Amino acid sequence: MEKIPVFFTFDKNYVVAAQVAIYSMLKQAAPRYTYKLYVLHTDIPLAAQKKINRLVAKFDNATLDFIDTSAFDDDAHILQSKAHFSKEIYYKLIAAEIFPQYDRIICSDVDVAFTGDISESYFMHPDRFFYFAGVGQILESDRMKNYDPDFTLEEKEILKKEIAAGYLLMNLKVIRENAMQQKLTDYYKANYHRLRLPEQDCMILCCWPHIATCL
């Protein structure tokens, strides 16, 4: 069966939410695919890992690996949380390095409940040049006022076009071919103090216009 890789990245405070998200994803999963799940983390206790693994084991077409990403915590900018964001959001920016075996991968936050299969979004845009594909803006928002006075008018025009980083299709092959990971991580570290939605703002400001939508 064809494999669909998916990763989550969260800390020990989101274990219960992760169980809900993972169960809902696999409950909707198409039986014709194998779903290879990964959790990137630095502090999830072994007991919690076993509990999540038991949940995944209920599904014949899914497996789960936990990856300790402590080795990537090499900068003070990612050793801290910001607002309600944990430091683990940084690992979304280095997925191309963590998963060299894949050309594309889905990343999902754990504050998500799935109502349908994700395979359609995984296979989207086979011939399009893009770095990330995600859910675009659905409703008008006045959130741009939150970016004053730290962002230029040009930057805010780009930010208006951003996609939500809570569910992403990542084109790892193109990211590697164009050395985009270095640009992303350099920008993230240099601008962390002013980013409101850290990894999401970083992705759109570095990768626009090569951003697509999915779902």
Description of the molecule:
This is Glycosyltransferase. One of its GO terms (molecular function) is metal ion binding. The chain is of the alpha/beta class. It has one domain: Spore Coat Polysaccharide Biosynthesis Protein SpsA, Chain A. The chain is 31% helix and 20% strand. The protein is built from eight helices and seven strands; from the N terminus they run βαβαβαβαβαβαααβ.
List its salient traits.
Spore Coat Polysaccharide Biosynthesis Protein SpsA, Chain A; 7-stranded mixed beta sheet; 8 helices; 20% strand; 215 residues; 31% helix; alpha/beta
Write the layout of secondary structure elements.
Elements: E1 2-9, H1 15-27, E2 33-41, H2 46-56, E3 62-68, H3 95-98, E4 105-108, H4 119-122, E5 132-135, H5 153-159, E6 164-170, H6 172-177, H7 180-191, H8 198-207, E7 211-213
Helix pairs in contact: 1-2, 7-8
GO molecular function, one term: glycosyltransferase activity
Pfam family, one: Glyco_transf_8
Protein name: Glycosyltransferase
